[in-house]
Amino acid sequence: MIDLKSNSSLKETDILVLSPTPTYPINQGNRKRIYSVCQQLQNQGARIHFLHYPQDIVGHIPSQWYKEMANQWYSFHSVPTTHPVQAPAIGEDHLIDEWWDRGLEDYLKWLFQHNYYDAFIVNYTYLSKAFEFAPSYVCCILDTHDRFTGRRQLLESQGISPEFFHTTADQETIALERADLVWAIKEQEAIFFREIAKTPVCTMLHIEPENLMQRFPKPEDKDYLVIGMIGVGNSINTTNARAFIEQVRPLFVKYLAPIKIKFAGSLCENLQDLEDVAGIELMGRVETVDEFYQAVDVAIVPMSFSTGLKIKAVEALATGLPIIAHRHAFEGIPSTHPYHNCESLVEIGEKCLDLAFEPSQLSLLAEATKTAYTQMQSQVEDAIHLTTDYILKSKTFIMIIINHQFFAEKSPEYDHTLQTINYLKNLAHLIYYVDTPLERKKAKRLHWYDREGKVILSPNAAQASGLKDEQFIDYSSLLEISCAIWSLEKLCTQRQIIALWLMEIPAEFQSGIPDSIQNIPIYTLTDVLRSYAQPGTDGQTIKCLKDCQNLTLVNSSLSATYLESSWMPNAKIAIVPYWKQQPWEVKERWANTPDDHKRVIILAVPQSLELAQIVWGLCCKLFPESLKPMVFLAKDEQLDETNRSSASWQQDSQFVQNIASVSDLYHNIIAWDRTPWFVVDLSCEHLAFAIYRETILRIGVLRIVPQKRLSSLVEEDDLKPASGIELVKVLGRLASDREYLAQMQEATYQNAEIIYANDAGWSRIWREISQIKRKLT
Length: 777
Known about the structure:
7-stranded parallel beta sheet; Rossmann fold; alpha/beta; elongated; 8-stranded parallel beta sheet; 37% helix; 4 domains
């Protein structure tokens, strides 16, 4: 199981990121935020697959932007908008999915069908519907950027008409609860999100690379304290900037303060009426933010109202410049310095006056900036590590080692595996580990089930399938399923595996069970072990499990427990039916086969062959209109020479089948000419027939089991004749009275319904794995 540590790595982890804004050019706050987070995850070893949905851009997008983004990330996708962008609310506030685009929905479905991702990051709550199209095993992370609840009321309180997106708490709750983890951009919003939703919330502050700035004053600015604000021209920035000028400039004039105010960015386009005002300079849009910061002594952030973290405040912190800010602008930023927590715009002006007349304080204020930046950097690193651990451990997995017979046509392993998947998927997310070569036809058998769990190929299986692990490849073009390539040991080290379900023994176990797997509970079918201990095998493969302390042998028959305990002395035993539900395909085939195409099946072992010969001959006479009976000999038994020399058996040897596997028995149930009418079981409860016996019982096939002598503890039963005479009577009645045969078949079926209802075996598995899961979560 995974050992969570603060230095967990996202190496070889694939993360899909959906963003309505590009990460090039990096000249706006939200672009910087998204780029920064993706860059930090990339630094942790993650492969970032960036999906750009240009919802915040009107008009043509330069091709150069796409080229740059393709260079930034491991893979890049773009899907055009097919829905009006940033449409006004239909009602008073937006519904959370009011901006959703069906075109984006179709593209996401295609992406998840064709590619494998460990995590999915969606930017902004109004795109949260995207999570509905991610497979259940994907860790879904919502980067909120902003609190949109009450945004309309906030704007209206400042005389600003509602703009962009605004919604209500109940709608925002819908978005939050679609995610596995929510990122709030500041703690104040994290508290609110925790109040309205149950989803875990992590404060992921925005941080920018340190960019210590050297001052390059213009000659005309000599002897002035130059303060400045940079920003985009939205209503919030414009309103705050104008309020600052209106409240503070009279103060500067009153005291004849040697202060100049510079504005930069598209904000200037909304302040054109201030262009000729003394002491104010509009720099307009700048090529780089460095051009602005090199021109000022002090960065001001006069934001008395807004939502989200102030990206420009964070940007200023990275420069190391002195900063004066409204306390609202520094919400979420770890600083208690009074210059960073002004109560009003007027107080910001007063602090500017202090610096203008005592410039020696500038160096002390610059140190406060650097201290706040260091503390903020530490908090962001903690959040990244928390997120890394969450991606690796938030999902608990049961790993099913898929049997190669799963990919065979009409195999019991296929039907049994699907029933097992449908049961275990309710306990945890699933990993289907394939240790056998795949090609498209075989891989189709996992189609749709790759939505229920991760399909992982072992490196050897991938190589044998012609797949490479050097880069992120669209394997679906080869296999038509999304999959990844990992070793078993790496999976168990980097993922929260709570149980292994072995339908075959993986090749990696043959040199010993890796340390990372020693503490993980392992469940395996005893039929799997027996297949590795047949004549002609060296038995070495199963020795790796002999000393396993967390092994549970899953038996479909109580009679198997004694044999298995000698094989695996440390193993626990669980009596669990092979089928979780009725094997519908078998029942349908049996029910639709005409009686004249059914035959009596006799199960035998060498010591019962003499009796089997007698029963075979008797059935040939009693049922002359049916196909001749067949004898199935246990798979690990062989006819000796005495049996082989019998004249009658030589003549009719085609009716004696040596059963090689569970699949052989299964095919003999559904094969057109071998469908059982009823079964005479002379196998002495041999383990080779355990699954066959369960299967025929569950579909209503009569099973006659002759008893050597009827114990007083056993209820007398027509299907358990205690002598040869009783057996002949039962067979004779079945031949002459078809109504009796039908009644007995129905009784057999009803009896099976009772036996397997609320099965305790599968319930035990549920309890055990649930307890493991609770301990970990």
